[in-house]
């Protein structure tokens, strides 16, 4: 077998591979590339056998055949490109920046969102971030969750912030509006795993891949809104702090506790249909906002903290219930 690595990878099929399928042979010759990705390359016309393009993954090869492979960028690699967008930067210096993420903005590129994410916007605004893993992003928010995120601008700062997250010293405080009467104070410490019934959901569970998760909860206020037949529905304004950062953690934990988030399209709990005139219908997404962020500056070692008010839709919901003020931080946790 011979290999060159200029513009293409070239292989000569050895006797042991004679009569095998093209995709299987390439999987043996290129173990660092997944077979599914190799099959895609074949179908895209990026593979030639004896100088002839072959687009059938089940095509057979023989000993002595020459295979030429033009490596193709992955969707992930294509996604790592700058796309200009209007970002709300709350704070920035040479080491970090803090952004107020709006609803609807995905953080990392993934299927269906390869070039319209926060990562793409950060690369357009700060091109130097292309040298950092995930463009300096160290934690994430769900697409329709709003609020504060910190982004590192140097590798040293990114490493330091990741260590702070692992040590659970980064203070991440969220506002949530939930169905039901929330307890005055407490915490939920239940492991979270991918829901075996739906790959897009997570749930509390004890499967082999379940991860520890802890959410501190404090009730800020309680109110009532009209329900079906004008029967009052109780809703609570809660503040949550995370010890861990599992996917959908607050949403999953609050549903498990019988307090699903208002407007959550995925973790609805057992809440019935709301009347059209109910104020809760204002929310077309989960009522969740990352209102406060606190950390130790990775360079100066100064304790820093930021607050951003609730966005317009959440503000309208809270004011309609009688919650507020919505533009000031609440003090329900120890510093």
TrEMBL record:
It catalyses: a uridine in RNA = a pseudouridine in RNA; uridine(1911/1915/1917) in 23S rRNA = pseudouridine(1911/1915/1917) in 23S rRNA. Keywords: Isomerase, RNA-binding. Residues 20-82 form the RNA-binding S4 domain. Responsible for synthesis of pseudouridine from uracil. This is Pseudouridine synthase. Signal peptide: none annotated. The keyword Hydrolase does not apply. Its EC number is 5.4.99.-. Pfam families: PseudoU_synth_2 (PF00849), S4 (PF01479). The keyword Transport does not apply.
